[in-house]
């Protein structure tokens, strides 16, 4: 079959002189050589690679996908001028290097057909099955929908891809192969587009590759993004590293020889390789630590590969006997793997001439997983056997994506939360029971609470870190033993969003706050509807189940609480809802529905807001408008702003009154005209505090002469309380006049 493929497609994809070549042999390798030109890649070459691990029938199935892709993309060319089909084949070759299965390879070849050709999902499903169709659909951007901004389209496309990935990991593996090839061929794009794609890759795709343990892809994407974001800096560093490589050749050779001899004497069968820090890694260290290139000494590192875990620790001892270790520069990722399943021993030692050298010590299996991550064994077992650590970690992260999605309605917010969880550095802390929990660096005690269980996070009030009391915002360090203190009556605080670090904590807090606001809106809506019913002489209990069912059906709601919430949020008028509920009841068909008076206590929460223009307080006459989607907004009855609005839209205004005993204090704006003098502000503040009032805001307005005006917002319980504050202020000799400021006019209490 392969010969048939060559005869059919070989001439069209004749390999160019710039074809990919193997790097020269040598112990010291650059981390990534520049990818060679892939201007001419034939399916015949892909088939040769597939034959190494797939049976002939699967190679033939992949060939069928190639034929559909080739036909669909016929006549299309890339920005470089190459036939477009070279791109899907290159993506499939990268996937073949990871030994992905036939369905993933078919999706790789077809990944652009839904966007760029006339091929539709039905055809893919018919020829290759629903699984391949789902993979291709997950890889397709949302180009055919209408979005107000490009950023919104991008966010929705990312969300679609990440959720498809949470159902099938192959989606992201193919997407990373697609992005890797696009980055390798980015030179044909315009400069601004190159920078935009490079930023996107650095922010999203490189961190995802790292999160999945695809370290080789991660480093290459970072380096290529750096080259396109900052081309001049990249070129300067590249030349500096090349010059340094020549100068350090003797040092590296000496270290390799010494280490190999020391390990052989210890009876360890090992492989030792020199490796070079990536250009982006060097650049990041220079920026973060404010170093010049000459001050970055650990450009070279060494990797020691042994047979089993025990030999890793024996090799570590041999290296420490040869070179002195640097204190606090040892990390055991074998005992405590990274979040992406990465395992190795890391140590930094003082080599010849005092040069710091980093060694990574790992087994062959650890090395395979370190380079290929979840792609090294991506296929989850469906029956029998245990999942590997990489598989467990990846499944847990993908489940967290679904959890975040279930709590998040906005695509931009979803992507923000996912990006938070993609940062590679981690801290490892212990629960009181000894369980290890991995969290992003900078995570707080509250992040741990949500990582353990949502209910613990929602009711958290404090923490004990290593046996000592600490606030929830306490930043955790590796090795901390953390116990969370909870209280049944505690609820999430909006201020928590300012310091939590994980996407899960952020999404759970937002969900809890939204739920609480909705509950408050539903409670207000129920009160509004019931007050309207009572004003008509109809008890709420008299409403029949049929009346409710008909009204819910007409309004598109499932339960009364949903309808009440819409009333409380101002999306529906209570009178209109009551009219729907009373349809068919004798005597109500033609009856007008009067307004009703609702009592305001101040404890209604976010469902009731108080207008900033007039700042009503108990004792003022008040009226309220039901804003669309914003609940009830309460104004003073004499507020000029409210009176103008009521004339324009009287139907949305509701009669309200203060409850007998309001349950909170309320802000009032006060202007105090004073003689300039030493200590006047202190005397004013003292008079306010003595009357159990609180200053929320103060601003001083200078006036001609020796006087000025203090513009304050203070918290009081009622008009009599405000009058009591005014009397105390007037006793101050420097105070000329005290006025309350409301709705564009000034009034004296």
UniProtKB/TrEMBL annotation:
CDD domains: ACT_RelA-SpoT, HDc, NT_Rel-Spo_like, TGS_RSH. Residues 84-183 form the HD domain. It is an enzyme of class 2 (transferase). This is RelA/SpoT family protein. Residues 425-486 form the TGS domain. One of its GO terms (molecular function) is GTP diphosphokinase activity. It comes from the Bacteria. The keyword Transferase applies. Transmembrane segments: none annotated. NCBIfam families: spoT_relA. PANTHER family: BIFUNCTIONAL (P)PPGPP SYNTHASE_HYDROLASE SPOT, GUANOSINE-3',5'-BIS DIPHOSPHATE 3'-PYROPHOSPHOHYDROLASE. SMART domains: HDc, RelA_SpoT. Residues 669-743 form the ACT domain. Keywords: Transferase. Its EC number is 2.7.6.5. Belongs to the relA/spoT family. Pfam families: ACT_4, HD_4, RelA_AH_RIS, RelA_SpoT, TGS. In eubacteria ppGpp (guanosine 3'-diphosphate 5'-diphosphate) is a mediator of the stringent response that coordinates a variety of cellular activities in response to changes in nutritional abundance.
């Amino acid at each position: 079959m392969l010969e048939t493929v060559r005869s059919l497609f070989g001439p069209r994809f004749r390999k160019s002189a710039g074809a990919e070549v193997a790097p020269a042999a040598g112990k010291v390798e650059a981390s990534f050589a520049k990818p060679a030109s892939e201007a001419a890649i034939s399916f015949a070459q892909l088939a040769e690679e597939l034959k190494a691990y797939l049976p002939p029938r699967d190679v033939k199935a992949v060939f069928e996908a190639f034929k559909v892709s080739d036909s669909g993309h016929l006549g299309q060319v890339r920005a470089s001028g190459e036939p477009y089909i070279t791109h899907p084949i290159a993506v499939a070759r990268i996937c073949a290097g990871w030994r992905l299965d036939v369905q993933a390879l078919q999706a790789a070849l077809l990944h652009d057909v839904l966007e760029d050709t006339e091929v539709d999902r039905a055809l893919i499903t018919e020829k290759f099955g629903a699984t391949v169709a789902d993979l291709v659909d997950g890889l397709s951007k949302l180009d055919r929908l209408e979005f107000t901004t490009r950023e919104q389209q991008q966010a929705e496309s990312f969300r679609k891809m990440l959720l498809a990935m949470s159902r099938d990991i192959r989606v992201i593996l193919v997407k990373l192969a697609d992005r890797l090839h696009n980055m390798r061929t980015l030179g044909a794009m315009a400069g601004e587009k190159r920078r935009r794609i490079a930023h996107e890759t650095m922010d999203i795709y490189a961190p995802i590759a790292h999160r999945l343990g695809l370290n080789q892809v991660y480093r290459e994407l970072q380096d290529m993004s750096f080259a396109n974001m900052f081309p001049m800096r990249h070129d300067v560093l590249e030349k500096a590293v090349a010059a340094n490589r020549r100068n350090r050749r003797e040092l590296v050779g000496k270290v390799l020889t010494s280490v190999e001899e020391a390990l052989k004497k210890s009876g360890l069968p090992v492989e030792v390789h020199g490796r070079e820090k990536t250009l982006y890694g060097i650049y990041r260290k220079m920026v973060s630590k404010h170093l010049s290139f000459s001050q970055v000494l650990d450009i070279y590192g060494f990797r020691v590969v042994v047979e089993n875990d025990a030999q890793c620790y024996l090799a570590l001892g041999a290296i420490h006997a040869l070179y002195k270790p640097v204190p606090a520069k040892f990390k055991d990722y074998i005992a405590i793997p990274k979040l992406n399943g990465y395992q190795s021993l890391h140590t930094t030692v003082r080599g010849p001439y005092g040069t710091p050298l980093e060694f990574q010590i790992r087994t062959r299996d650890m090395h395979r997983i370190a380079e290929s991550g979840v792609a090294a064994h991506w296929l989850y077992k469906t029956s029998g056997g245990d999942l590997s650590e990489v598989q467990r970690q990846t499944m847990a992260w993908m489940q967290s994506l679904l959890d975040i999605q279930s709590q998040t309605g906005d695509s931009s917010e979803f992507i923000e939360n996912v990006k938070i969880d993609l940062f590679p550095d981690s801290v490892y802390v212990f629960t009181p029971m000894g369980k290890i929990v991995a969290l992003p660096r900078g995570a707080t005690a509250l992040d741990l609470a949500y990582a353990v269980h949502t209910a613990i996070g929602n009711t958290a009030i404090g923490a004990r870190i290593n046996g000592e009391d600490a606030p929830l915002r306490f930043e955790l360090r590796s090795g901390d033993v953390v116990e969370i203190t909870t209280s049944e009556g505690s609820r999430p605080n909006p201020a928590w969003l300012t310091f939590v670090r994980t996407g899960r904590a952020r999404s759970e807090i937002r969900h809890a706050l939204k739920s609480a606001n909705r509950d408050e809106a539903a409670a207000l809506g129920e009160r509004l509807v019931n007050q309207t019913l009572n004003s008509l002489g109809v008890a709420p209990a008299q409403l029949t189940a049929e009346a409710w069912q008909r009204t819910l059906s007409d309004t598109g709601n499932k339960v009364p609480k949903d309808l009440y919430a819409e009333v409380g949020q101002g999306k529906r008028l209570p009178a209109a809802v009551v009219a729907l509920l009373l349809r068919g009841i004798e005597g109500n068909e033609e009856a007008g529905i009067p307004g009703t008076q609702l009592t305001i206590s101040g404890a209604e929460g976010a469902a009731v807001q108080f207008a900033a223009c007039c700042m009503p307080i108990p004792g003022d006459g008040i009226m309220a408008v039901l804003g669309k989607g914003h609940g009830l907004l309460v104004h003073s009855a004499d507020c000029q702003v409210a009176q103008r609005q009521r004339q324009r839209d009287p139907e949305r205004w509701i009669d309200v009154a203060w409850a007998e005993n309001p349950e909170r204090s309320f802000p009032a704006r006060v202007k105090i005209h004073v003689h300039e003098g030493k200590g006047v502000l202190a005397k004013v503040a003292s008079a306010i505090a003595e009357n159990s009032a609180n200053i929320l805001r103060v601003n001083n307005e200078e006036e001609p002469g020796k006087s000025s005006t203090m513009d304050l917002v203070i918290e009081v319980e009622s008009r009599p309380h405000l009058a009591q504050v005014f009397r105390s202020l007037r006793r101050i000799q420097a105070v000329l006049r005290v006025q309350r400021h409301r709705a564009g006019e000034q009034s004296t209490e």
